[in-house]
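Structure tokens please, single chain.
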Amino acid sequence: MLAYEQRFESQGYKAIAGVDEAGRGPLAGPVVSAAVILRQVKFKNRIDDSKVLSASQREKAYSEIRKKAWVAIGIVGEKIIDQINILEATILSMRRAISFLSPQPDFVLVDGNMSLNLNIPYESIVRGDAQSLSIACASIIAKVTRDRIMSIYHRKYPEYGFLEHKGYGTKSHFEALKRIGPSPIHRMSFAPLKIIAIS
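Here you go.
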């Protein structure tokens, strides 16, 4: 999973960051992006697209990544998501994560087909979290960070079951929405919330 990193290292780039997000699809909570520059490339724990790892595997990998990489997080909350739409909010969260990195990268690998308009060179890679070690690490950091945020929200709004579904549109989540309406962290610009608000 180092082919992309090695290609750009051979072109002279020294600090290559992988960037990925978690939380584009949920009906509630923030979108979270992570930017990761690897200091080491050998890991004891499995590093892969966060979606194919169990929660336990992600937590173990998260701890190891934090020890072996420079990491930064960018978070954009539901209010801004509603104002500028989820795509623009995702781009903003990625740009924030990159800007918070220290040291700053001189090249960025971005998961998906994203146009970030950065002042440093970057390449978007479709399914990058399964092809680039840096992006896979960012995928894990973003997912674990967002899950932890939603666990905190669960304590504040337990009636929605955020601990179980992390804000995604599950059957139990929709049932809670129909029963008690949206919470302050729901994304009211998303179609299911618009329907509930009208009905």
